[in-house]
Amino acid sequence: MTAGFQPPPYPQDRLAEIRRIPAKVGLELVDLSIGTPVDPVPPLAMELAASLSLARGYPSSAGSVQLREAASTWMKRRFGVEVPVEQVAATVGSKEFVASLPAYLKLRDPSRDVVLYPAISYPTYAMGAILAGCRPVGVEAGPDGEPDLGSVEPELLDRALCCWVNTPANPTGRVTGYDKVVAAGREHGFVVVADECYVEFVWDRPARTVLEHGTEGLLAVHSLSKRSNFAGGRVGFYAGDAELVHYLSEVRKHAGLMIPGPMQAIGAALLADQEHVELQRGRYRERLEVLVEIAGLLSLPAGMPQGGFYLWACDPARDGFELAAVVAEATGIVGSPGEFYGPSARNCLRIAAVAPTEKLRAIAASLK
């Protein structure tokens, strides 16, 4: 057998031993290691799902006009930015886009082979670079939370295909601006790609998008998975630079990437409705407040994040797996060790606010 790429163990598969701890101590397992929505799908989605008339034919790979118009209108309503429908295209959720984008960008410009991404982040940014045969370069955050591109060798900046930015950030919850990274991208000729999937959940400031800086050399990626509890629908979109969106939508058409027609119709309806999002915002905020209380009862250093729905607890004296074991034994809650998100986060633990509020309140009460 020839030596070739061997995929590393999938991070969540490494939690088997931690998941066994609650049963050993007589507690219910409350698995909060993945940000899987548990709340109801909005009723309007269920009503549309009853009709499968759009399932007969092949759906549009770039997204129906209805879906792209809904995305454009939502960006105007939510951020005050105007993005023409032609500069919006659909993704099958957002993870496949994150994983495949470097490969498509490298086809477009083979002279560039570096992918910049946050040093503490969603692991698919780095994996997408690896799958494309590119060099992933993790960039630590500066004091303002933006990527500290001044710490990156200029040669790497000139060879960069793209730089990922994630705000609100998974897992840290940090909310940042885009000024420096946009300026650097335009100076060095790389694409700035903003993963804004948690942008509806910003707790202490207005929500923002990278497209406030225009669209030249920029892409923003969005998803209905978190916003609308619609992870199973696999509906997302990207928007920005006109030439890039056209190029990517054509390449992705050849790859056969398509959201099912009924899901596109549901996605358009969900983007047009903000009421269900506000309801979900209230749920996540309340759960985060209870998780902060639970962390305090366990003497875990953690506070309310600026955005997103993850509690991020760090303790320099213990690694993430030790923190996960302590929390699981005391509460039944299973979180994700920080090393899943980068070596510099090895002393941290991420806990998703995706259990019913009543269950979390009961855990807090039992600890008291």
How would you summarize this macromolecular structure in one to three sentences?
The protein is of the alpha/beta class. The chain is 39% helix and 15% strand.
Structural overview:
The chain has two domains: 11-40 and 276-367, Aspartate Aminotransferase, domain 1; 51-271, Aspartate Aminotransferase, domain 2. 39% of the residues lie in helices and 15% in strands. The chain has 13 helices and twelve strands. It has a seven-stranded mixed β-sheet with strand order 2-8-7-6-5-3-4, with helices on both faces. Helix 11 packs parallel to helix 13 (357-367).
- Which strands sit side by side, in order, in the main sheet? 2-8-7-6-5-3-4
Please report the first level of CATH classification, the CATH class of the largest domain.
Answer: Alpha Beta
Integer average pLDDT: 94
Q: Order of SSEs, N→C?
A: HEHHEHEHEHEHEEHEHHHEHEEEH
Distance between the termini: 57 Å
Please tell me what the overall shape is: globular
CATH topology of the largest domain: Aspartate Aminotransferase, domain 2
Please give the CATH architecture of the largest domain.
3-Layer(aba) Sandwich
The CATH homologous superfamily name of the largest domain equals Type I PLP-dependent aspartate aminotransferase-like (Major domain)
Show unreliable segments.
none
| Number of E-state strands | 12
Q: How many domains would you count in the coordinates?
A: 2
Strand content: 5-15%
